[in-house]
């Protein structure tokens, strides 16, 4: 069963995260979405973000095999630098492709 690694990345680290993920041979692709993050840790927010109440961040999603998780997290750690990047891992029950040329989904 595959896993989905979800990482919340500040805008200033977006390009660096893209570069690192693109350089990893085991990562065949990933998804990024712009989201608003809400937190009780206001010290991490700029003054404008404190007024607005949220922070603009990028949500990265990487589908991977469970055995890849340790090396993936190790490779991404330098992007955080002195900061912390929030992440979580979700199980993926099934994945595949939809369409006439698509193979049937793999069931485990």
Description:
- This protein is α+β, with helices and mostly antiparallel strands and 108 residues long.
- It has three helices and four strands.
- A four-stranded antiparallel sheet has the order 2-3-1-4.
- The model has no long low-confidence stretch (mean pLDDT 85).
Short synopsis of the structure:
This protein has helices at about 15-25, 45-50, 70-80; strands at about 5-10, 30-35, 55-65, 85-90. About 25% of the residues lie in helices and about 30% in strands. It is globular.
Q: Output the structural class.
A: alpha+beta
Beta fraction: 25-35%
Order of helices and strands: EHEHEHE
Gap between N and C termini = 7 Å
**Biggest sheet: strand arrangement:** 2-3-1-4
Poorly predicted runs:
none
Question: What is the 3D shape?
Answer: globular
Helix count equals 3
Sheet with most strands: 4 strands, antiparallel
> Compute the gyration radius: what is it?
16 Å
The helix fraction, in percent, is 25-40%
Oligomerization category of the chains in this entry: single chain
Mean pLDDT: 85
> How many strand segments?
4
Structure characteristics:
single chain, 108 residues, alpha+beta, 4-stranded antiparallel β-sheet, 3 helices, globular
Topology (SSEs and partners):
Elements: E1 3-10, H1 14-23, E2 31-37, H2 47-52, E3 55-64, H3 69-80, E4 86-91
Antiparallel strand pairs: 1-3, 1-4, 2-3
């Amino acid at each position: 069963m595959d896993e989905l690694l979800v990482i919340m990345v500040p805008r200033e680290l977006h390009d660096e995260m893209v570069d690192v993920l693109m350089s990893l041979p085991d990562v065949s692709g990933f998804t990024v979405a712009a989201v608003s993050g809400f937190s009780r840790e206001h010290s991490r927010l700029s003054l404008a973000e404190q007024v607005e109440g949220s922070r603009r961040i990028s949500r990265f999603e990487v589908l991977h095999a469970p055995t890849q998780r340790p090396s993936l997290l190790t490779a991404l750690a330098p992007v955080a630098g002195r900061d912390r990047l929030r992440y979580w891992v979700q199980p993926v029950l099934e994945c595949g492709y939809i369409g006439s040329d698509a193979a049937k989904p793999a069931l485990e």
